[in-house]
């Protein structure tokens, strides 16, 4: 007996009328990245000058941090040279009460938000994982695992809305991070909950060495938005004015209850992935040079000069301000950080477990023994051990 | 631990005694703990897959959405990393998320959030961002679940610094420990032994007899011959084994219920083994690099001169959790526990006969 014979009441009725629940067209990004510089659009001169000053500072910050890796003061530095416009715009599009969720490359966004450069570099220097207080600064710790900070941004934005607070969370991720599962889950949650969150993907061409074409088959990363039911915006990531405009629009849309937006900034990483990377193995010098023509600083400087908003004195003034910041950074980064090894046990739990008490006691005894022997406490344990051995062991 | 929620548990209203005594299941006690926590603290939020309208696949969250609204007990998209990741952000903003992983093996997609963020956020930020969140994980076998529905993953959680790992074995502990976990300012992996969900006990939430602090083991049965160290789903097995040993062998086995794996109540365990001189650790999860390995090592370090026999372990085999028709061969049962007890070295004078003598 076939299935059809069994179900005598079977009718050839059509399935229920099905249509997409929402019209996808308004969610789709434009085919070309949005631009403002060089278009003659009406722009706020004060804002342009502010963006320019921040871009110059940002470029100098990247150069100084890279130099510090060569001097052994930073363990590693993932430069955002070439991406300064996106970094700066992310910081300036937020209001005081909003939160920023940066990835490890987004040190500059944190600095542009007003954080102390030395505190921001703590993770990369290696004196503590987060050198600044996220609660006080409303900048989440720099996230090393890719895209995992995106669901945090969604949760925080959702929590703020539940409490009735006027807070937007902006989360930053790279093109490689857009392939991670957490990227998908964060965007899906944000759209379902209509959380006041904005996602900024900096498409800088490569995930370390893997080019975008091997990363995704999507028409653009901004097109991914439609699958979640949120608008996708494609922006020239080197155009600081366009970046600021689009991000501000997305942030204020979220603030007004309009839900999340996915913004793809099309940009380029002029430096290697980090100082430890050899970018010549996976990209041509000609390609890098072509992007130098589209450098965010050059675009902004040309715009300001064309509008008569910047002269040589203005250029010099911005460079000097950036140099002061770099000088202060350099001086303070060359000082040895003050570290207390006992801090290791202070922030594991609200209250130490018995086992952690015991281990803290062991370390304290080692430190005291080293001090009594006149051995510097930090990094000298091996020497201390040898002396113990000469005395016939530790017991 | 002195938190607002914890205090309110202890000073709860006391109804007349005759009304208070009634039979409750562990699932009901857990449900009551969630309700009481939601009512006591507006920052508590329950969310996860199916926890709302359905009330959870085990009905532990039954009625919470109806009572507290969708904002306090929320059905989420089906995504464990998303559930744990958004819980991080909510905790960052001062809420106390209580999330459900539905089944033990379903938690694995969320492991990165657990080990890379939840366990470390307090440490990373020098205490600026504590993670007061509770992750409820129904765990363990014995309910005939198909693959991925019966894992015991406690060793993974225990091996992650920064997480508390708690598992009740009684109805009263289910209530008390869950309330303590939700009130805790640290992340707690709250492991719920699935096969004890429907076990009934004389317990009434109106009169909680005991609200244990996290990190305190309980001696469930005093004894002098040897100590059975166990937790969660293996507690009833050990209690039955101790009864049988007393009846058939004249051995008085002490049974210690750890209740909390992290923090580990070393003092209670060590005191017991020093009294009895022999120990067997019993759990369902795999033995190799399992919780018993850690416990046996600690007992050996602290009790070496008191031990009459090596510390033995009775655990599940070192195999992926078997299909339901074979799980009875895998799970430690009374016979396997008694076999281990018989393998303890009994040649020397029984400590049971040396009443209260301790070790010289």
TrEMBL record, chain A:
InterPro entries: Alpha-ketoacid_DH_E1_comp, DH_E1, PdhA/BkdA, THDP-binding. Residues 59-341 form the Dehydrogenase E1 component domain. Signal peptide: none annotated. Keywords: Oxidoreductase, Pyruvate, Thiamine pyrophosphate. Residues 1-26, 367-395 are annotated as: Disordered. Its cofactor is thiamine diphosphate. This is Pyruvate dehydrogenase (Acetyl-transferring) E1 component subunit alpha.
